[in-house]
Amino acid sequence: MFWSTVTRNGVVEAQGAPRIQPFLFSKNVTFGQTIKTFCSAVGKEPLSFQWHKDGLPIYNSQNVKIVNHDDYSVLSLTSVDYNSPGNYTCIVKNTEGSATYSAELVIHGELEKKKSYFSTEMVSNISQTIIKFQLCR
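Structure tokens predicted for Down syndrome cell adhesion molecule (137 residues):
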């Protein structure tokens, strides 16, 4: 891939296909944590950023926030859970080509179990009521 810089009016501009600065996730991520990673790239602007997890595109949602800038993108994962681990890939494209870089997110520890709002007795009573209702029909 061709890549170079050009100076115009005292400003250095990157040219060519994108090149991504390697990124990593912390090795000490635990369940419930909020984490961020940055994908920065050089190349002829404008650069277009996209994130994938395990080969599928990811988008902004309740627990995922992606903020793209001219030459970098920030991926934030809020309150990581069992769905969070995997391979995250940053894809950068421009008119000259594209580049990808992937990093694996591993989470350590166990996810705290949430307390049930229903007691065993309540569930049993609800089940009996449903059975009685079905028998009466």
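Residues 4 and 136 are 79 Å apart (CA to CA).
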